[in-house]
Amino acid sequence: MAVSQRDVRTRIKAVMNIEKITRAMAMIAAARLRRAVMRIEVLRPYANAIRRMTRQAAQASGALKRVPILQEHAEERTVGLLLIAGDRGLAGAFNSNVVRAGIAAGREHEAAGRRVIYFASGRRVASSLAFRSVEVAESFSGYSDRPAFGDARRIAERLVSAFLDGEVDRVEIVYNGYVSAISQVVRRETLLPLQQASLLEEDASDEDASGSTQTFQVAPEYEPDPESVLRRLVPDYIEISIYRALLESTASEHGARMTAMRNASDNAVDLIQDLTLQMNRARQAEITQDLMEVVAGAEGLG
Asked: What's the distance, CA 17 to chain centroid?
């Protein structure tokens, strides 16, 4: 059945309204992306300094076994997986990529005979896991657009408590790492035990705010003692690690949403052009039909 001009005109108007919305959402995401990237750049020197001081205190104290949070469990029978994504959609495959990677990591641990406990940061993660009939031990939400350090502290307290109480023997986090506005990479990192993370490893990439590598010719002195300093630094390092992951995820979400909305706007423009062409063809067909009827009427009168 032929489509009338009115129907096509109505569709064009609807698509134009959608295009205005998606273009506005792309602009908003771009503005939020710039702020999120600035927060990552501001945090990086502090995170590197905490990492460096914690590693040095651990090497100086020789008391790793006396700090509970640094003690590895005898067996890894239960693994806690923290999946970090967003509270909202309309960001392409941003949320689903984290969920798929988290499910794959869980199946990998289950194949090795370990039990998996899921923690979710973001409403989309929690709802996706629930849709797959995966039980979530605890979920955190309401801050994915602009996470605060207090949000990271709340998550860190729950994960550290689970590790110290023996609820889990290992903690991993899965999140979207920010590479650029159009590129996000799903990362899977070990958070606890810290011996299996990158914290206690030598890392020549630790840089200060000016971008130069920090080297110490003289061993620092600790007051009151390295072990006391280490007990204070380790929780800070865990909180900073989670906060960094939250900021990376936020920047990745804004970048993914900006790209998705720009693509949607471009598709809407293409669709409007196709519909306009369809409407013009329908108009020409109607004009031709009217002319043929006039000519036929004139010939009938003649």
From this structure: 29
